[in-house]
TrEMBL record:
Keyword presence, Transmembrane: yes
Membrane-related topology note: Multi-pass membrane protein
Assigned keywords, A-Z: Membrane, Transmembrane, Transmembrane helix
Entry similarity comment: Belongs to the UPF0382 family.
Protein name stated in the entry: DUF423 domain-containing protein
Parts of the chain that traverse the membrane: 6-25, 46-63, 69-89, 101-125
InterPro entries registered for this protein in UniProt: DUF423
Keyword Lipoprotein: no
């Protein structure tokens, strides 16, 4: 199940990163400030990086342990919370009604992404530690 989730969300996030990146570069260029464009681009980049990571992991992890499932869950949720909260903040700010409730969501997503990476590092070194 984790393999399919990882592949599905990797492909979906990759597709959406392309679409949103093009949308941001063309349609939103005139509506966004330079700061909003830079933030939006950060969301797109992080989304694409983690889409690729999800795909790579889906072909390289055995998904024999719960820890591997936790990694995938952290990356899927973290990407969603991080990138999509940035998109929401940028879009709502450009429309003059910034959704401030999304402000704390971005670092929560970042924390989940960092946790996913840290758990992945643990998988690589655990056999040498014990």
């Amino acid at each position: 199940m984790e393999i399919l989730m990882s592949q599905f969300f990797g492909a979906l996030y990759g597709f959406l990163a392309i679409v949103l990146g093009a949308f941001g570069a063309h349609a939103l260029k005139k509506r966004f400030t330079q700061e909003q464009l830079a933030s939006f681009e950060t969301g797109v980049k992080y989304q694409m990086y983690h889409a690729l990571l999800l795909l790579v992991l889906s072909f390289n992890l055995g998904f024999n342990t719960a820890l591997e499932g936790y990694i995938i869950t952290c990356l899927i949720l973290g990407t969603f919370l991080f990138s999509f909260s940035i998109y929401g903040l940028c879009l709502s700010g450009a429309l003059g009604r910034k959704w401030k409730f999304l402000g704390p969501v971005t670092p929560l997503g970042g924390l989940l992404l960092a946790t996913g990476w840290l758990l992945l590092a643990y998988i690589f070194i655990k056999d040498f530690m014990f």
